[in-house]
Write a structure and sequence with these properties.
This protein starts with a helix and ends with a helix. The chain is of the alpha/beta class and 396 residues long. The strands form three sheets. The chain has an eight-stranded mixed beta sheet, with helices on both faces. The protein contains 16 helices and 13 strands. InterPro entries: Aminotransferase_I/II_large, Class-II_PLP-Dep_Aminotrans, PyrdxlP-dep_Trfase, PyrdxlP-dep_Trfase_major, PyrdxlP-dep_Trfase_small. It comes from Pseudoxanthomonas taiwanensis. Its EC number is 4.4.1.13.
Length: 396
């Protein structure tokens, strides 16, 4: 209760009031990489720390708690994460099956190195999170891309293409849910069909659920491993509080094991695989899972307003751009192919509008001509970003 009382001091309208100079002074990649631009590329929010997390970190620093990670802290993290999954997703997973790693990308590397035979092809729905394709290739795993389809104003996984990827030798699916960069939230029936397809080929699933806390009304996150016993045996799940509570620089995520053999292997390799997890990150994540509900609820309300505002501004000021409003995440996938550009759209908007966006081509086949826009920013800045982009397009 104390954590919830501390949170009450922050009103949702405070998110509007974060000034641009404060964001730049914060020193993060989003505002320092392109200092003359509005940063809308890297996936983090501009709303600071939840008060309980800030207090927990300040107390840890006052105690000098920046040494090697201790077992009592990792136990507390696992218990807090398990409780969050139960309360928010109805997923009953024992704390003993949850283990700390530095981040979700590192978690995927652990899975590829230790849980998948060398050179095994991997199925990847595209567009997808930018580093996945180069990481898979760097580690020697051929990438079999599975293009997502637009159907009746929604994103749909091409299940026939997924089955074909497995038939061609893929033995692992990397499933990002909610799906970065398109914001799709997979329903239980969809996940059950994916599990059935994977079962026919004895394939595994790496479930990247880092954006799971950020789902909008009308949709519900369903953990892949909770769908069935079959899905649980296929899955190794990665979760983190980093996206929902602005903790990416503190280096902490969690791997959730739902297959006994996987957990047994982790007990042999975990000392090394999780070694770089940061003590302050574990403290921050534990506090987020335990005490961050009220702050997150206000943040989601604000993000839902930003999503609606973005849709309105696109209709009014940039009707040439097309999108499907995301069901989760704070990322918008914008189709710019109708614009008469002589350069990729991310380069055009960076040069002509001074808005920094993600290059859609980095997200896999079919991403050319698209950009990813992060709308987790103060509303006045979101308006300014779209206005700048509209003025740049009007000058063509």
């Amino acid at each position: 209760m104390a954590g919830q009382r501390r949170e009450a001091a922050l009103d949702i309208h405070d998110f509007d009031a974060v000034p641009l100079d404060q964001l730049r002074a914060g020193g993060g990649l989003k505002w320092r990489a392109f200092p003359d631009c509005i940063g809308a590329f890297v996936a983090e929010m501009d709303f600071g720390l939840a008060p309980p997390i800030a207090a927990a970190l300040q107390q840890a620093l006052a105690r000098g708690q920046v040494g090697y990670l201790s077992p009592d802290l990792t136990r507390a993290l696992a218990e807090a994460c398990a409780d969050w999954q139960r309360r928010h997703h109805g997923w009953e997973v024992p704390a003993e099956a949850i283990h700390a790693v530095p981040d979700v990308l590192g978690a995927l590397e652990v899975v590829l190195r230790h849980y998948l035979p060398a050179a095994t092809p991997v199925a990847l729905p595209v567009p997808n999170y930018m580093p996945f394709i180069p990481l898979l290739r760097l580690l020697g795993h051929p990438v079999l891309e599975v293009p997502m389809r637009r159907e009746d104003g929604a994103w749909v996984l091409d299940e026939a293409a997924l089955e074909e990827a497995f038939a061609r030798g893929a033995r692992q699916l990397v499933l990002c849910n909610p799906h970065n960069p398109i914001g799709k939230v997979y329903g239980r029936d969809e996940l059950a069909r994916i599990a059935a397809i994977a079962a026919r080929f004895d394939a595994r699933v790496f479930a990247d659920e880092i954006h799971a806390p950020i789902v909008y009304p009308g949709h519900r996150h369903v953990p892949y491993a909770s769908v069935s016993e079959q899905a649980a045996r296929q899955a190794i799940t990665a979760v983190s509080a980093s996206k929902a509570w602005n903790l990416a620089g503190l280096k902490c995520a969690q791997l959730v094991f739902t297959r006994d053999e996987d957990l047994a292997l982790w007990r042999r390799i975990g000392l090394f695989a999780g070694h770089s997890t940061a003590t302050p990150g574990v403290i921050a994540h534990t506090t987020a899972w335990r005490e961050g509900d009220a702050w997150l609820a206000r943040g989601l309300e604000y993000l839902e307003g930003n999503r609606a505002l973005l849709g309105q501004l696109l209709r009014e000021r940039l009707p040439q751009l097309h999108w499907i409003a995301p069901q989760g995440t704070y990322l918008a996938w914008l189709d710019c192919r109708a614009l008469p550009l002589e350069m990729p759209p991310h380069a055009f908007f960076r040069r002509r509008a001074r808005v920094a966006l993600t290059d859609g081509a980095e997200c896999g086949t079919g991403g050319e001509g698209h950009v990813r826009l992060n709308f987790a920013m103060p509303r006045p800045l979101l308006r300014e970003a779209i206005e700048r982009m509209a003025e740049a397009v009007a000058s063509l």
